[in-house]
Amino acid sequence: TVAVSSRLDAIRSVYGLSVARSLIKIDASDNDLSSSVFEMDGFISNSNYIAKKITMVLFINDRLVECAALKRAIEIVYAATLPKASKPFIYLSIILPPEHVDVNVHPTKREVSLLNQEVIIEKIQSAVESKLRNSNVARTFEEQTVDSTPPSPISVSKASPINPSPPGSKLQKVPVNKMVRTDALEPVGRLHAYLQIKPTSQPEKNYSLTSIRSSIRQRRNPKETADLTSIQELINDIDCSCHSGLLDIVRNCIYIGMADDVCALLQHNTHLYLANVVNLSKELMYQQVLQRFAHFNAIQLSDPAPLPELIMLALREEDLDAQGSENDDLKARIAEMNTELLKQKAEMLEEYFCINIHPNGN
User: Fold this and answer.
1) Binning pLDDT at 50, 70 and 90, where does residue 160 land?
2) For residue 253, what are the contacts with CB-CB under 8 A and spacing of at least 6?
3) DSSP label at 99?
4) pLDDT-based confidence at 138, cuts 50/70/90?
5) Which residue has the higher pLDDT, 354 or 94?
6) How far apart are CA 58 and CA 101, in angstroms?
7) How many CB atoms are closer than 10 A to CB 266?
8) Residues 64/166, Cβ–Cβ less than 8 Å
9) Might you name a Gene Ontology BP term for this protein (predicted)?
C-alpha cells in the first residue's frame, strides 16, 4: 500500500470502506514473567460486519504469520456471541520476546507457535469477548422500504374466482426476508390502518377517524377514578408492585403471533419473549376494572331482563340434578329474595357498576 497515516487507513485501502467502518479497536497485554509477556493491539469486526469467511491478518513482531490455535479460539468467541452466519475480520499485531516464538513449525516459516500459547490465547479471547459484548448494543440494520398503502380486502373465495387473472400473469409472492415488522409506536400495524371508510351521501354522518379514536380512548382511559379509599388502596398496591422492566416490554412490544394455545410471541428491541396471554388478560381486566370503577360503560338492553329469571337460570346451571323439579320452589324463593336484595342495593349498583335496576325487578 501507499504510505498512509494509520493502520486503519491501510485496512481501508486494501479491504474497502465497508470493512473499515465495522472495526473496533482492541488491545491486551501481560507482563508477568511467570505466565506470559506480550503486547497486543489491533482491530476486530463488530456485530454489524457480515461475511461468509473469516479473515485474519496476524503480525507477530512485525512479521506476517499464521497461528491456527489463535484463529480457532477467536472464531469460537464470535460463534458464541454473534449469529453463526457472521464470520469475523481480525487484524492483530502482537509484540513479544523473540525467544518466545517458535518459527520452525512449518517449512515456509509461515505458521508459528508461541511460548505460553494457551495463556496468551486465553487473555486475547477475553479481550475480544469483552469488546464484542459492548459493541452489541449499537447494532445497525439496513432499512427496507414498506408500502404503507393498505391492501384491498379479499372478498372472492378460492373456489369461485369471479375475476380470474389474465393468462400468463402470476401473483407476486413477497420473499420472507422482505417482510418487515413495524415499530411498536407506529400505527401501520394496527387494525384501523386497514379500515375502509366508505363515502356516504350524508356529510353529517361522516365522522373522522381521529374523533372516533379519541372517543374510544376516552372510554378506555377515563381521567377520573373512583374516590373510594379501598379502590385507591388497591390501585396504589398495583403501582407499588409494578415491575418497570416488564412494563416497558409490554408497553413497547411488537406482537408477532401465537406460539401455541396459551403463549404469544412478542418482540422488544432485539429480544423475543413468550407471553402467557391468559395471565396477561386476567391482570389487564383486573386493572381496567379498578381504574374504571364507577365509570363503566352501560349497555342498553332492547328488552329489560327480569332479575328472577336470570337468577333461576344461574341456579339451574349450578344444580347437579338438572332433571329433578322438587327444588324449583326453593329456587324460586331464593330468586325472589335475591331480587329484593338487589332492588334495595339499586343505588349503589348504579353508582359503582353502572347496573340499572328498575323498581319492577328488571
Assistant:
1) very low
2) 184, 266, 267, 268, 273
3) G
4) low
5) 94
6) 14
7) 20
8) no
9) mismatch repair
Q: Whole-prediction pTM value?
A: 0.42
Q: Is the pLDDT of residue 101 over 50?
A: yes
Beta bridge partners of 276: 263
Pair type for strands 101-102 and 55-60: unpaired
Q: Grid cell 372472492 — which residue?
A: 156
Which residue has cell 479491504? 15
Domain ranges (residues) in the chain: 7-139, 242-293, 307-353
Burial class (CB in 10 A: 0-12, 13-18, 19+), 34: exposed
Among the listed residues 65, 10, 36, 51, the one whose alpha carbon sits nearest the alpha carbon of residue 126: 36
Predicted confidence (pLDDT) at residue 191 exceeds the cutoff of 60: no
Amino acid 308 reads P
Instruction: Measure the CA–CA gap between 230 and 79, rounded to whole angstroms.
Output: 55
- Most confident among 211-225, 277-291, 309-323 (mean pLDDT): 277-291
Q: Kind and range of the H or E element at 294?
A: none
- Distance between CA atoms of 67 and 79, rounded to whole angstroms? 19
Tracing cell 461475511 back to the chain, one arrives at: 51
- pLDDT tens digits, residue range 214-236? 666 665 555 556 678 888 899 89
The single-letter code of the amino acid at 106 is H
